[in-house]
């Protein structure tokens, strides 16, 4: 419910904090004090245009809210105009207007002389009728099947439309798989080929280097091995005289053996050379490089790509068998969908007549004794709510053919119809606001309206009705009563809002009854309050 309205500045409402309660909350005040400014301030937070150029701030605090936007049951929305720029806030953080509206959807409804948007919403009549008929669970069941049906319909359409594209893709993939399979790529092959290619390309230089090394190490006169042998021979004379000489002697003997081993390794190199082998390696590397460039990947990626292409080819080939399966499933789903839609339509048509009678009976008590209300159920294409189009037709006077309610009803009539629909509906928003719904009525009708508004407010412990009224019959049944007044301070008009109880409330009811406050009017007010 809406717990706090916090207004820092909104026209001549300044630094006002209103704490509301569950049940029926009424705002009253003399004509001209700006009672509807409270509603304007609330609508301001929801995007209503504001022509004043001054800085403005309004905040609404909701409690006991459970939706994706609430935090620990709290939901706070606010709007600020500063330096001619408008800002919206959700739980203290900047937000868009669309997010704000989504956050309060199904939480807050506003009905006034000129704000009956819900009655103009094409879905609203359908929701009212379904709530009245208690078929919301059945509609949800239908919606699940409808969602599945639309998904199958989309899948079938996409598969059928892409048949030519599928065949083209199959041709391309077949060519690519054939190309990669023909290449017979092995992991690590390219690295081995590059090493072999480098070896064969430099074989003459390698021969020369090998020959030079063998000659220098062992073959030439004065070779390294020969010189090393001379050094070893000289040191052998003193091997046992000094530990360092002994170590050096041993290392040199080892070195001599290593030199011989190196020589034999070099001498064992096979310099068989084939121009044909070099050519084939070069061709193979060119092929691998071309494929890597073409498919923008490396050797390992080409191997993986071949596997992926084979998998994709299998999927594309399976699609041919998927289309008949999808068609069959779609037909079965359509049958279920139509069965539930027919059931929903039948209930709607039956309950529509009951709803019409109930609404008309309520409207008769609200000074619309000749009103005709018709819930029109027309068959249409399948949609998210079934295969029905629901609309409200209305006529306030005899001899006038009922027309769409948004085209024929006045603001006051719309307000009364809204009240009745809320009363007969089994589901409603947590907080419902009416702005002077009682305009143009009085006497016995006012008593009936007060009774209906009170019943609406008491329908659930979670319900809250906020009402701007000029009727004492309505004000006396309120759970909480607020008085709006205005005064002039330093040449400036300032509005005040305060909760009135006991004697203050008796005086306000007395003023509403007779326009004057005296002992007689106060006594009358007291009697009405005690009677509620």
Descriptive report:
- This protein has 532 residues and is an alpha/beta fold.
- Among the domains are: 1-107 and 429-499, P-loop containing nucleotide triphosphate hydrolases (Rossmann fold), CATH 3.40.50; 168-314, no CATH class.
- 56% of the residues lie in helices and 19% in strands.
- The strands form three sheets. The protein has a six-stranded antiparallel sheet, with helices on one face. Strands 8-12-13-3-14-15 form a six-stranded mixed sheet. A three-stranded antiparallel sheet has the order 9-10-11.
- Helix 15 (443-457) links the parallel strand 12 (431-435) and strand 13 (464-468).
- Helix 4 (124-133) packs across helix 12.
- The longest helix has 66 residues, at 299-364.
- The protein is elongated and about 145 Å long.
- The two termini are 24 Å apart.
- The mean pLDDT is 89.
- May be involved in recombinational repair of damaged DNA.
- It comes from Hydrogenothermus marinus.
- One of its GO terms (biological process) is DNA repair.
- Belongs to the RecN family.
- This is DNA repair protein RecN.
Name the shape in a single word.
elongated
CATH hierarchy: architecture of the domain at 1-107 and 429-499: 3-Layer(aba) Sandwich
Number of DSSP helices?
18
Strand content: 15-25%
- Main structural class: alpha/beta
Q: CATH superfamily membership of the domain at 1-107 and 429-499, which one?
A: P-loop containing nucleotide triphosphate hydrolases
Mean pLDDT: 89
In percent, how helical is the residue content? 55-70%
Main sheet: strands, sense, barrel:
6 strands, antiparallel
The spatial strand order of the largest sheet comes to: 2-1-4-5-6-7
CATH class of the domain at 1-107 and 429-499 reads Alpha Beta
Q: Kindly report the CATH topology of the domain at 1-107 and 429-499.
A: Rossmann fold
Q: Mind telling me the C-alpha Rg?
A: 46 Å
Cα end-to-end separation:
24 Å
E-strand count: 15
| Low-pLDDT residue spans | none
InterPro entries: DNA_recomb/repair_RecN, P-loop_NTPase
Function: May be involved in recombinational repair of damaged DNA.
GO molecular function, one term: ATP binding
Keywords: ATP-binding, Coiled coil, DNA damage, DNA repair, Nucleotide-binding
